[in-house]
Design brief:
This protein has 387 residues and is an alpha+beta fold. It is 27% helix and 28% strand. It has 2 domains: 175 residues, FAD/NAD(P)-binding domain (3-Layer(bba) Sandwich); 147 residues, D-Amino Acid Oxidase, Chain A, domain 2, CATH 3.30.9. The protein starts with a strand and ends with a helix. It binds flavin-adenine dinucleotide (FAD).
């Protein structure tokens, strides 16, 4: 059976699960600990798709479909607590009809609520709210969800090597035949041969592509998040407007995550969490839930979205959150290399399905995807040592 080597242990690395179910031999290499890139650091919103209905209908549809599948295959990583979009100004209110129409078009169940109904559900909301809409948002544990994919992949035979950084591609002319890695535990370099290499290095995928002398349309788009102690609401709260800064609060276990800002960066390794972003997040999120104004940060961090760039210098909030996978044989004349870019944690299974379908076509096999109905192993199994 063909040997597929995946670079990157984040959302994109969940491809290991799909490929092992289809019968491939799989190795995944990750330069740090699993999820040490963007995936271990996002809000943890299991999107209903509502956040994207204004400008990104394709992503909205993808999110709702995957939201339903993940609730079934990874229920222990998900809290089905729902979400509200709230209007605070006349301008917000003017978006409501378009929001509801967008939800209907994307197949997302959305129910308008009066201010009184919204406050009955979430008494800490800004009492001046003008309207609300309920959607099937939920909260995922970013680590547990992804680790459930890796636990299942490993139980099905995937070899997962952490602290193993790709330093170059092994190439014969225009054919990629594996990777050169340095194992940071031993300090030793080695070559790992493969029939096909998948570049799933998220915001770093441009660096991997450059090793083959080609470019990919990746745009790192960092954002800052702040955790405060306590759950300021039980449901996810979003502002009813096209996605922008400081317009979401995600309750995560006994914390609440205030999100987020967005800008464009060249190097995901040099991204910081500027103090002025933190101040803006408190000010904007306090408009949603006034009690936030009196809180202090429990934790502040940033991460880079691996955005699929369609044109340079776009508004980072307006860039589509959809994904794509590229066969570099067809695109650049480089055989043996596939790149997966974009997406969301919410769409991780779908990203893997589309990439694995491409690999099935490339390898001339006829294996169907089974991840929609395969319930994942508990995330704890990854560390139990019995797989
Ligand atoms: C601020 C913010 C908030 C977000 N909130 C949400 C949310 O609430 N819900 C949601 O669904 N999505 C959210 N997202 C999106 C989601 O987090 C990302 O789309 C997803 O985590 C990206 O996964 P990835 O696998 O593409 O990248 P990564 O998780 O970064 O994985 C790539 C991996 O490749 C590794 N790597 C890089 N170079 C090498 C090398 N040379 N050798 C070996 N390994 C290498 C990296 O260490 C990294 O672990 C958010 C993103 C951001 C930035």
């Amino acid at each position: 059976m063909e040997h597929i080597l995946i670079i990157g242990g984040g959302v994109g690395g969940s491809l290991a699960h799909d490929l092992t179910l289809r019968g491939y031999r799989v190795t995944l290499v990750e330069r740090g600990e699993l999820l040490s890139g963007t995936t271990g650091r996002h809000h943890g919103l299991l999107h209903s798709g509502g956040r994207y209905v204004f400008h990104d209908a394709e992503t909205a549809r993808e999110c709702y479909e995957e939201n339903r599948i993940l609730r079934h295959i990874a229920s222990e990583a998900i809290e089905p607590n729902g979400g509200l979009f709230i209007a605070l100004t006349d301008e917000d209110l003017s978006h409501r009809d378009r929001f509801l129409e967008g939800c209907i078009a994307a197949g997302i169940p959305a129910a308008p609520l009066s201010p009184r109904q919204a406050l009955a559900r979430e008494p800490t909301l800004n009492p001046a709210l003008l309207a609300a809409v309920r959607v099937p948002d939920a909260v995922m544990d970013a680590w547990r969800l992804a680790m459930a994919f890796f636990a299942t992949a490993r139980a099905n035979g995937a070899v997962i090597r952490t602290f193993c950084e790709v330093t170059d591609l092994k190439m014969f002319g225009r054919q990629v035949a594996g990777v050169r890695v340095i194992d940071h535990r031993s300090g030793l370099s080695e070559t790992i041969g493969a029939d096909l290499v998948v570049n799933a290095a998220g915001p770093w995928s441009g660096r991997i592509a450059a090793m083959a002398g080609i470019g990919v349309p990746i745009q790192p788009g960092p954002g800052v998040m702040v955790a405060v102690r306590g759950r300021v609401t039980q449901a996810v709260v979003n502002r009813l407007h096209p996605a922008g800064e400081g317009d979401i609060i995600v309750p995560q276990r006994r914390l609440s995550v205030l999100g987020t800002t967005a800008w464009l960066a060249d190097d995901p390794d040099q991204v910081t969490a500027p103090a002025e972003h933190v101040a803006r997040l408190f000010a904007l999120c306090a408009e949603l839930v006034p009690a936030v104004a009196a809180m202090t940060p429990h934790a502040v961090w940033s991460a880079s979205r691996p955005l699929l760039q369609s044109s340079p210098n776009q508004d980072p909030f307006a860039i589509s959150r959809t994904f794509d996978c590229f066969d570099h044989a067809a695109r650049d004349g480089i055989e043996g290399l596939v790149t997966l870019i974009g997406g969301k944690a919410t769409t991780m299974r779908a990203m893997a399905e589309q990439t694995a379908d491409l690999i099935v076509r490339k390898t001339g096999r006829d294996f169907a995807c089974r991840t929609r109905e395969t319930v994942l192993l508990p995330y704890r199994r990854y560390w139990r040592g019995d797989i």
